[in-house]
Amino acid sequence: MKLGRAGNFDGRTYTTDGFPHEHLANGAGPLIVGACVGTAMFAFIVAAASYACYRKKTLAALQSPGSYQLQHSLKKNNGYKDGKLNGPGGLVFRKTPAVRSPTGGGSGPILKTSPSPTGSKSPPSVTTSPTQGGRTVLSGPQPHPPLTKPVVQQHKPTPAESPESKIERETMDDEKPMRLGELHYKLRYSTDKQALFVTINKCCNLPPAKDPAAGSSDPYVKLQLLPEKQHKVKTRVVRKTTNPVYDEDFTFYGVTANQAVTGTLHFVVLSFDRYSRDDVIGEVLCPVAELIRGESLHDQEVSFIKEIAPRHFKIKSQGRGELLVSLCHQPAANRLTVVVLKARNLPKVDDSGLCDPYVKMYLLYNGQRIAKKKTHVKKRTVNPVFNESFVFDVPYNEGLHNLSIELLMLDWDRVTKNEVIGRLELGAKVDSGAARQHWTDVCNSPRRQIAEWHKLKE
């Protein structure tokens, strides 16, 4: 039955659609209430989640270096007061005073900038005026209080070091004098006894040997009278110190006045090593003529304090020796053969008066090393014989004009760094006349071995 309006025909009340009111009261009412409650809970959860995200982002922004504008906007909206966020658990910021000049002048804000890798540029939209009262005054508007975070001054990052600057820095480091400490000793010469009396007192400020991390050494001093080398003595070893005290006396008998005038005392400071060759710290050369240059100094004790010199000082005084090298160019095969024959009169680097030499060589193309070779080590000799041949491949159709050979004579050491005794470079553009002439002869005489003696240089 279709009804057009509400009515009461059979004792029940009907709606305009023809459904009885009791059906609505019995079933549809709870559903509507549940839907309303669910919708309200969902809206509350979404609002709470949105507020949590907003609060998290706000705290992160406030803790970042660029949070000043955000703080200012929050202060406008009453969301940030006196350095605190409104609401429970708000983040508290301690106010720090503005950076002031050491001179104490003025109370205005000061711009303290850290160095910039791109140059000394001011921050965007901020201009600085000349300093007043020992501080830099901002010329732009300053409506806000100082930043609430302390100013942290950053170090200027070091730019990538170019090869030229690195070479220049290494050269400057090499030119700096190496501090190896001091040697304290006393000398007295007796004309009646023809004896030279030497007292080794102490060493001061020695460097730690081999292991700088240990911070100490086991030093002792060896002494001999040059050039005869007949008198050789040494002190005891003082353990684990860089300032050893010896106070030991030595007497050299049979030293005439003429021998003393031409003689030289050679002190060598070493660090004892139980398992390898003792490490040479440095040396001191003292001409005895300094002691007996006047009659008034005879039979009188004279005290000396001398700087300890590096070991290569001894190499300079003795000379670096000579090297016999043979070269042969084979243009058809694009090869250069280098024969290291022998060396002579090498300096006596070792304490025993010997060394363990070997030769390392490089092939250079336009000054750049492109290949390397080395000989075997010859033990305990200053006149080694190598007789070793090496073949280098020459760049195709280049010839020898842009090539050169660099040879290094080194003293081998099992533990410490191998020391360079001398150096030799052969090529068309080298400074040495003999080396350049040898190279020219090889270029003009292909397929022929040409050998020459060359002096080793520093």
TrEMBL record:
Biased composition (Low complexity): 113-131
Residue span(s) of domain C2: 179-302, 319-454
Keywords: Membrane, Repeat, Transmembrane, Transmembrane helix
Top-rank taxon: Eukaryota
Amino acid composition bias (Basic and acidic residues), ranges on this chain: 163-176
Keyword flag Membrane: yes
TM stretches of this protein: 31-54
SUPFAM superfamilies listed in its UniProt record: C2 domain (Calcium/lipid-binding domain, CaLB)
SMART domains: C2 (SM00239)
InterPro entries for the chain: C2_dom, C2_domain_sf, Synaptotagmin
GO molecular function annotation: calcium ion binding; calcium-dependent phospholipid binding; clathrin binding; phosphatidylserine binding; SNARE binding
GO biological process terms, semicolon-separated: calcium ion-regulated exocytosis of neurotransmitter; vesicle fusion
Name of this chain's protein: Synaptotagmin-4
Gene name for this UniProt entry: LOC100904362
